[in-house]
Design brief:
By secondary structure, the protein is of the alpha/beta class. The chain has helices at 2-34, 39-55, 60-71, 77-99, 101-105, 108-111, 117-126, 140-149, 164-174, 191-202, 234-241, 274-295, 311-317, and strands at residues 112-115, 130-134, 155-159, 180-184, 206-210, 220-224, 227-231, 246-254, 257-263. The protein is built from 13 helices and nine strands. The strands form two sheets. The chain has a seven-stranded mixed beta sheet, with helices on both faces. It has a two-stranded antiparallel ribbon with strand order 6-7.
Amino acid sequence: MERQEKRLGAVRISRAKAGQFLSWIVMKGFIGTMSLLPIPVLSAVFGKVATAVRLLGIRRRVVRANLRAAFGNELGEREQEEIERNCYAEYGRIVAEVIASDRLLREKEEKFELVGRPVLEEAIRSGKGLLLLSGHIGNFVAGAHYMRSVGIPMTFIAKRVANEYVDREIKEIYARHGNTVISVRGFRNDPEAGAKVFRAMKQGNLVVALVDQNAGPEGTQTTFFGLPTFLPGGPVALACRGGIPVATALVTREGGRIRIDFQPPIDYSSAASLGETVSIVLDEYSRRLEEKVRKCPEQYFWFHKKWKALPEIRAQYEGRG
């Protein structure tokens, strides 16, 4: 009986892996085909895809609940709906740009803008390393490709996804132009990956962590649009233990160009403990991120369940509110 159960378990795992492999093959083939198209055609195709995704209701309930939570007291339903439509369209455009990033970089002087370069130059000159807190706003992937193309390589902390083949593909996209990727299971329960991240920072590298998504009860509480949210504090704790500066890097689209804005390191000298240090840094990070999102709300990744720790918003995510 036990042997039969083991055999059945092995069959289920094999089927699951086969399903993952097929999903990856389909995705790989689709991306390969799309990459052959001229950029204007590619953008138009993904614009249509984004519209279809929205009309099909994919993640729409989450987007609406998030916009209501963030802007319900400031904007009417019609204005929120406009942000929603533009958000889907923007992420269609972002996917098209990532697929065509090689061609995009050929026109980098016209397509990109770098702000705050002295922040990076100081980190490189000092040799101390730098932790850059970023978020899911704008085309941060194309922004990373651009930074490598101008001679500033970066190391990305990337959380693993369940499909190992898709996970590999995502990491290849991040590293396409020579950046480095450190894969982690999570920000708190993966000591081996944590050691790699700490070592990368201590070696003087520029390490990027996207820390705006909900980390659950293990996260550090901060505020975003006046509401409590819980962010992963692991990368910040590692940096602060090593005396490594922590700055922010946020990407937006302004005037038709992808704008990469490196903001000054966050001062946490007043902190009396490591926990207080992490809170100070993440509070300031959230403030800077919110400031950017308010300027271009359609460019933020509202598809994530940002406030699922709050029962009334979680109920809306699940269609119960």
